[in-house]
Design goal:
38% of the residues lie in helices and 15% in strands. By secondary structure, the protein is an alpha/beta fold. α6 links the parallel β3 and β4 (135-138).
Length: 186
């Protein structure tokens, strides 16, 4: 496990050499936390097809469809009451969230339980969400700006679990969770 979410993992050689470890970790091997194991098995690496998959991202590139499906499963698992977006995120994100949690409200003024952050995201808002025990779903992790934001969030939090993959990352800021990074194949 790296001490930094973007440290040596941004090196493509390291990403290739660590692929078997990340693939095994994505199936739950080597994860000792019951919460993290459940999250990885039932959200990140869910093998079943959900009813809404055919609607999510129809006509979009494969990576966008995968992101929306992961966001749907995250929303279904965490059941947020208040959701917000920051930065550049696809307009279909609200459909993915509300498909998993129909009672959720999309808000701009209240502190969200789930914040979807894309390129150009407000760093202060994402940090406040984590400090209040919320979850930040980070998209477009291949961009340098999002990798820097993830690094900043990791350095300025003391608790919470970061599940990081090639294209997306999910940072769950619950105060009861230890500060752990899971580099996954997602």
């Amino acid at each position: 496990m790296d001490s930094s979410p973007t440290g040596s993992s941004s090196n493509w050689v390291h990403r290739i050499l660590s692929a078997p470890r990340r693939m095994a970790r994505s199936k739950g091997f080597g994860i000792h936390s019951p919460f993290a194991y459940t999250f990885v098995r039932h959200v990140v690496n869910q093998p079943c097809t959900y009813y809404i998959y055919s609607e999510l991202g129809a006509g979009m590139p494969r990576a966008s469809r995968r992101m929306l499906r992961l966001l749907f499963r995250t929303s279904l698992f965490l059941r947020p009451d208040i959701v917000a977006t920051t930065g550049s995120v696809p307009p279909e994100t609200s459909h993915a969230i509300l498909g998993g949690t129909p009672h959720a409200r999309i808000s701009t003024g209240q502190q969200p339980d789930l914040l979807v952050a894309g390129p150009g995201a407000d760093c202060r808002q994402t940090l406040e969400c984590l400090h209040s025990g919320g979850t930040v779903f980070l998209t477009s992790m291949h961009s340098n700006a999002m990798q820097q934001l993830t690094e900043h969030l990791w350095q300025h939090t003391e608790c919470g679990m970061l599940f990081k993959g090639n294209g997306n990352a999910i940072f769950i800021g619950k105060k009861t969770l230890p500060h752990q990074l899971f580099d996954l194949w997602m």
